[in-house]
Amino acid sequence: MTDRTAELYLAMDPAAVGKRLRTARVASGLSQTEVADGLLSVPQLSRIESGKRRPRLDMLVTLAGRLGTTAVDLLTGVPADRESEIRLAADMAELALLSGDGASALTDAEKLLGTDEIGALPDVERRVRRTRARALEVTGDLYGAAAAFEYLTGTDGIDLDWIRDAIGLSRCLRTLGDYARAVELGERAQEMLTEAGLSSSVEAVQLSLTIASVYYESGDRLKAQQLCRRAIAAAEALDSPVARASAYWNAGVIESESGRTEAALPLVRSALSIFEASDDARNAACLRSQLGVLQLQLQEPDAAEARDTLERAARELEWTASSEVDRGYNDVALARARLLLGELDDAREVLKRGQTAVAGKAPVTEAEAQVVEGRLAFLNDDKEQARACFTRASHLLTGVGNDMGAGTIWYELGGLFEEIGDFQTAMDAYRRAGAAAGLHSRTTSSSTISVERSRD
């Protein structure tokens, strides 16, 4: 008898088990008298088969042996070979997700959830639902992913997997711009973790950092910095490389978004080295992308090194379980780097790929892509197209609300509208950027559009 058998027994449905027992007995050609012989009375067996009596576990094991089956088969209704097949399929869906094939992972997960047997294997069902939620996020269906993670966090019982689901939901809500719900969820989850005695875990640190990023993007820098400092202290106390890397990463993001790029770089590099050493390919790829963005934000942008960093990140993001938004964000940054280097044709090509990835999913990155497209149009002496792109970027940002990334792009747009002679719109852009005081331009210390043209 295994621990799993005992666990299934505690959660058994007597009516379902009784029906399976009777079906197995009839299929074996045995009478109730033959099956009950020396173990229990025929009336007792009859009550078990009708679901009116709950058999003892040892009795169920013996009955299963007499019928040529197993207690697990009777408890789940899934034959051992079929259960192995389902578990293998769940493993393959997870593997597809980890290898970056979100579409296949989603198809496989939904196929499994459509089977009749999955409900009888609750541990497998939860794994598959989590794979589906992550696959929806990876393929860009953030609303679907949020709903899937919300379903998972609505189940009873708080464990480390529950924390990971809460982090996934908070992450989706943050990307969708629903900061109020993201913060409410995160703070409620933290209270539940404390009550469950799980506040000193790597996942708890990661949840705290996710909440910090929500606070920061919604404009509450002080709260975000406080949470980051606490998370770093907790990570150091845990002596966990993953927790430390996550804390350094988030602290680096806050430093960079506050305009302190020089202070952010060593934090991000430290986090990247930890993720690389731990073979965390997805986080290493995303962090490398962030490093490339930081290299563009320096007072004197290192466009060539940023291009190389972002190109490597693009390759890594392609074969890991990154989302379309992750890849699109990287491509837009790579287009900026190529623009600064005068590689205009290559910039247009990679920008188009990035725009396709983020369309309708990440308005701030979508607006940034419009800014880059406008810069390219201006360099092609098409001021009207440039103006149209900058205007589309403004429209996208108008619906975002109070967001740090949006404020940065508003500031950049102010300089760009000035350069094309639209001073009234420029003032409005600067006014909107002022809501997020202290932000800096994402590209250079100057808002000028001019770059060194390629010799090609």
Please tag this protein with its features.
single chain, mainly alpha, 434 Repressor (Amino-terminal Domain), 0% strand, elongated
Structure commentary:
- The chain is mainly alpha-helical and 456 residues long.
- Among the domains are: 3-77, 434 Repressor (Amino-terminal Domain), CATH 1.10.260; 81-139.
- It has helices at residues 3-10, 14-28, 32-36, 42-49, 57-66, 71-76, 80-98, 102-113, 122-138, 142-153, 160-175, 179-196, 202-217, 221-238, 241-257, 261-277, 281-297, 303-318, 324-340, 344-358, 363-379, 383-398, 404-419, 423-433.
- The protein is elongated, with a radius of gyration of 28 Å.
- 49% of the residues are buried.
Order of helices and strands: HHHHHHHHHHHHHHHHHHHHHHHH
Largest sheet properties: none
DSSP E strands, number = 0
- The CATH topology assignment of the domain at 3-77 is 434 Repressor (Amino-terminal Domain)
End-to-end Cα distance, whole Å, is: 73 Å
Task: Report the CATH architecture of the domain at 3-77.
Answer: Orthogonal Bundle
Helix content: over 70%
* Structure class: mainly alpha
Q: Which CATH class of the domain at 3-77 applies here?
A: Mainly Alpha
Poorly predicted ranges: 436-456
Give me the number of helical elements: 24
Q: Rg from C-alpha positions?
A: 28 Å
Strand content: under 5%
Overall geometric form: elongated
* CATH superfamily caption of the domain at 3-77: lambda repressor-like DNA-binding domains
**Mean pLDDT rating:** 84
